[in-house]
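TEACHING EXERCISE
Course module: macromolecular assemblies
Task: Read the component lines below, then compare them to the predicted structure of the full complex.
Student: A.B.
Group: 4
Components provided:
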Amino acid sequence: MEKKIEGSCLCGNVKISSDGEPQMTAVCHCKSCQKQTGTAFSIVVGVAEHSLQVEGVEFLGEFAGQGDSGSKVSRKFCKNCGSPVFSVLEAFPGAAFIKAGTLEDTSWLAPNMHMWCDASQPWISFPEDIPCFAKNPVSE
Ligand SMILES: [Zn+2]
Ligand SMILES: [Zn+2]
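Instructor-supplied answer key:
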């Protein structure tokens, strides 16, 4: 199945694409992702940062903060519509994490891990066939 990585924010001003192979698809339950997305978790697709192409960079805003791990996280969003688009994490150098909801085609998406499960909302149930990390896979 072709894993086509092409996406945009809600208003379409920021477009992203990558011809790289997705390195991971993770569901992140950390409190920062809950706050940033305004919902229960993020679904992120990790690609090599150098493979990520961004159109409409003039609309791209950055919130540089700390992740739940305490390491630096640069969260990129569209300044026009507010959609989170991708993040770059100090804990995962060389990777960019695209918010999966921005992708045009999500038919191939299959998360291969859950992380920050300790911070998850209480109604979430976790699958038994993929790893569920209490924090992030790097800290364990
Ligand atoms: Zn936008
Ligand atoms: Zn997170």
